[in-house]
Amino acid sequence: MSETPVPQHEPARPRRPRGASVAELASALGAAPHDPGDDALHLTGVTLDSRAVKPGDLWSALPGQVTHGARFAAQAVERGAALALTDEDGSALCAEAGLPALVVPDPRAATATAAALVQGRPAERLATVGVTGTNGKTSITTAITRTLLALGVPAGVIGTSGTSYRDARGADHTVATVRTTPEAPELHGILARMAEDEVAVASMEVSSHALVLHRADEVVFDVACFTNLTQDHLDFHGTMEEYYRAKRLLFTPEHARRGIVCVDDEWGRRLAREATIPVTTYATLPGVEADHRAVAAHSEGYGSTVTVHGPDGERTLHAALPGRHYVANTLAAELLLAAIGRSGPEVVEALATEGTVPGRMELVADDGVRGIVDYSHTADALEQALTTLRAVPGTRRLVVVMGAGGDRDRTKRPRMGEVAARLADVVIVTDDNPRTEDPASIRDEVLAGIPEDTNAQVHEVDGRGAAIELAVSLADVSDTILVAGKGAETGQQIGGIVHPFDDRLRLRDALHTARSTPRRVDADDMDEGR
C-alpha cells in the first residue's frame, strides 16, 4: 500500500534575495553610528534566531524577559552573520563576539523595517488581504485562497493552519511556519518568495500579538477585515480594552488602505467609528445597520443560502457550512475578494463550493450519527458551534467533547464549561493541548463552570482518545458528536512534547468501528461520571 506523500516544507526565504547595503539600512533606520567600513556589506537575509543565521544575514538580537538575545552573538558569527541589529545593551555583547552592530532604541520594531528593505518590499509586489478578529480568521483567509485557486489565480495563505501557495506555473508550495502571524523576517521572506513565484494574492491572518509585537509592520494591506472580538488572549493583553486596541492598529494607514468590518458586535461598531481608513461594514444580525446586510438565510444540505442587501440591491450567496457565523465568513470573503478586484458570478459560484476549511465545522461522518470536528476553543466559538448544530434539521441530541488549552487564558475555562453544559445534552470534558500544565487541573477549571443542577450528562475523561471513544459509545441514530478545540491540528502538546493526534481520524475511526458493532444506548444507561 502506498503512503500519502508528506509535504516538503520550503524555507521562508526567496531563492534570489534582493538584499540591501548596510548604508541603506542605517539610513532607513536612522541607526546609531557604526564603523564606516561596514557600509559596503551587502545583507541578503534577516533572522531573529541565531541558529537559523545564513551567511550574509542581518541578525536581530532582541532583549528578552529572561536574557538578552545578544548573548548568542558568538553562535550567530559562527553561522555567518554579517551584522547585528540590537540595542545599547546588546551592542556591547556583540562587540565581544566580534560582530558589528547597528544600534536602535527598539530593535524589534526596526527588524520589520530591515526585513522589508532587505527583501525588496515584497508586500508591494502582490495584492494583500489581512484578517483579524477572535474567530473566523482561518475560515475567511482559506476561503479566499481556495476560491482564487479554483478560478486559476495563483494565491497563497498565511495563518493558523500553516503557510502555502500555488505559483504562476501551477506548482504548490508549503512553507514552514510556527505562528499564526510569522515573525517579521519570516513574513517578509515568505512574501518575497511568493512574489518571485508570481503569486497574485496573499491572504493572511493578523493576530493581536503580531500587531503589538511589530510582526506585521511594513505590510500595508490592500484591504483588512475585522470579524469579531470575544474573550481570548487576556493572558497577554490583560483586558478586553487592550485586546481591542491591538486589533484597531490594523485599521490605520500604516497597516491597511481600506477596511471591511463586521458590526454584529459593539466592538465592530466602535471600530467602524474609530478606524482612520475608509471602511465598509457588514452584518448578519437582524436590526443591525450596515452597508451589506444578510437579511435571510435557510438551510440547504449541510450549508445555507443567504440573501444579502447591499448598496447595489439584493444578491444571493451560498455558505458551504451551517450557521450564522459561516454566513458572516462567506459574506466577508466575498467583500474582500471584491475589494481586490475579484467579483462576479464565477466568484460567487467558486466561493460556494470552495468555502470550507479543514477542521472548521468539518463533517467527518454522517451515517446515522453525524460527526463534526471544529476548532472552537473559546466560549463564544463553542456557543456558536453548538447553537449551529442544534439548528441543523434532523438533529436529536448533541454530544460534545471539549477541554481547554494549557498555558493560555485561564479565565475562559469555566465559561467554556458553562456553555457546553447549557447547549449540549452530553458533555465530555477532556484534554485539549495541556502543554506544560497538569491536565487534571485544567479539566477541574472547566468543570467548575458547570452548574450542579445542569440537565446535561457530564463526564470527565483523562485522555482525548478515550473521550472520543466514549462519545461514540453514547451516541445513537440522529445524534451529533462535536469534537471541539483542536480542529485540523495533527498533534497534541503534552508536557512539552507533541504527540501525533488528529481529531478527525480518531472520530472517523471510532464511528467506523461502532458501525461494525452497533449498540443502542438509552439515556438511562448513561452515568453522569462526575
Quick structural overview:
With 530 residues, the chain is an alpha/beta fold. Helices cover 33% and strands 23% of the residues. The longest helix has 16 residues, at 324-339.
Structural description of this entry:
The chain starts with 8 loop residues before the first strand and ends in a 14-residue tail after the last helix. It contains 17 helices and 26 strands. It has 3 domains: 20-118, 3-Layer(aba) Sandwich (Udp-n-acetylmuramoylalanyl-d-glutamate--2,6- Diaminopimelate Ligase, Chain: A, domain 1); 122-354, Mur-like, catalytic domain (UDP-N-acetylmuramoyl-L-alanine:D-glutamate ligase); 362-525, Protein-Tyrosine Phosphatase, Chain A, CATH 3.90.190.20. The relative contact order is 0.08. 33% of the residues lie in helices and 23% in strands. Helix 4 runs parallel beside helix 6 (184-196), helix 14 (412-423) packs across helix 15 and helix 16 packs parallel to helix 17. A 12-stranded mixed beta sheet has the order 1-11-10-9-12-8-13-14-15-16-17-18, with helices on both faces. Strands 19-20-24-21-22-23 form a 6-stranded mixed beta sheet, sandwiched between helices. By secondary structure, the protein is α/β, with parallel strands linked by helices.
